[in-house]
């Protein structure tokens, strides 16, 4: 668990183990809503296992902002700004999550100043991701947006060289890139016809990574 937690970069394995052993965790089933938009936030969540979806509701539609997985942290932005939750968070794969109270989180930062540096670094990365999403929505075709989202999922796989995307359907991708499911379905058909993708129930497999990357950078 200690490897890969960006919040704890620069700390020794022993330090991280001690910290995590002191933080309680809870298990959640798929579809559990961990956070509702506009709810008060009084703790930080560190994902031990599983996956969660971050989304906002707009005009009876669900806009997916991101997926977070093992080792990632949520809630620290609202905790520092003392603002309510900026978005809702739903468990998409059975998860175990550490809960760190505001008081304990502040105490942890005072004891390990490098954590504050890591928070700034994490926020910068999120800002870059947001800018990337805005560019995708503004400048690129549906076909290119689909390819870029698929590449993001592949790059975020836990195992290197894992070319499969599990438990992500076309409706989810449509919500992420701001188009209809039918538009995504057409893009998927084109990618299948060119033997770039293979579709099975609950699994997308990339067959030709070079072509997918070329299409992602086409526009």
From TrEMBL:
<dbReference type="InterPro" id="IPR050397">
    <property type="entry name" value="Env_Response_Regulators"/>
</dbReference>
<dbReference type="InterPro" id="IPR018490">
    <property type="entry name" value="cNMP-bd_dom_sf"/>
</dbReference>
<protein>
    <submittedName>
        <fullName>Transcriptional regulator, Crp/Fnr family</fullName>
    </submittedName>
</protein>
<dbReference type="InterPro" id="IPR000595">
    <property type="entry name" value="cNMP-bd_dom"/>
</dbReference>
<dbReference type="GO" id="GO:0003677">
    <property type="term" value="F:DNA binding"/>
</dbReference>
<dbReference type="GO" id="GO:0005829">
    <property type="term" value="C:cytosol"/>
</dbReference>
<keyword id="KW-0238">DNA-binding</keyword>
<feature type="domain" description="HTH crp-type">
    <location>
        <begin position="140"/>
        <end position="210"/>
    </location>
</feature>
<dbReference type="InterPro" id="IPR036390">
    <property type="entry name" value="WH_DNA-bd_sf"/>
</dbReference>
<dbReference type="Pfam" id="PF00027">
    <property type="entry name" value="cNMP_binding"/>
</dbReference>
<keyword id="KW-0805">Transcription regulation</keyword>
<dbReference type="GO" id="GO:0003700">
    <property type="term" value="F:DNA-binding transcription factor activity"/>
</dbReference>
<feature type="domain" description="Cyclic nucleotide-binding">
    <location>
        <begin position="7"/>
        <end position="126"/>
    </location>
</feature>
<dbReference type="Pfam" id="PF13545">
    <property type="entry name" value="HTH_Crp_2"/>
</dbReference>
<dbReference type="InterPro" id="IPR012318">
    <property type="entry name" value="HTH_CRP"/>
</dbReference>
<keyword id="KW-0804">Transcription</keyword>
<dbReference type="InterPro" id="IPR036388">
    <property type="entry name" value="WH-like_DNA-bd_sf"/>
</dbReference>
<dbReference type="InterPro" id="IPR014710">
    <property type="entry name" value="RmlC-like_jellyroll"/>
</dbReference>
């Amino acid at each position: 668990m200690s490897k890969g937690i960006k919040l704890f970069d620069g700390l020794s394995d022993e330090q991280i183990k001690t910290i995590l052993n002191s933080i309680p965790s809870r298990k959640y089933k798929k579809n559990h809503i961990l956070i509702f938009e506009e709810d008060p936030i009084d703790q930080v969540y560190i994902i031990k296992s599983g996956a969660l979806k971050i989304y906002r509701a707009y005009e009876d539609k669900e806009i997916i902002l991101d997926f977070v997985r093992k080792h990632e942290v949520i809630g620290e932005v609202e905790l520092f700004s003392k603002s309510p939750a900026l978005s809702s968070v739903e468990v998409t794969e059975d998860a175990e999550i550490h809960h760190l109270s505001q008081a304990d989180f502040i105490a942890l930062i005072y004891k390990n100043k490098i954590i504050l540096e890591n928070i700034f670094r994490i926020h910068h990365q999120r800002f870059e991701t947001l800018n990337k999403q805005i560019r995708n929505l503004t400048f690129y075709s549906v076909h290119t947006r689909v390819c870029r989202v698929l590449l993001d999922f592949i790059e975020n796989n836990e195992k290197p060289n894992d070319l499969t995307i599990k438990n992500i359907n076309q409706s989810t991708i449509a919500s992420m890139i701001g188009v209809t499911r039918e538009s995504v379905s057409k893009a998927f058909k084109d990618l299948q016809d060119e033997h770039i993708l293979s579709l099975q129930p609950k699994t997308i497999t990339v067959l030709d990574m070079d072509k997918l990357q070329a299409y992602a950078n086409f526009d």
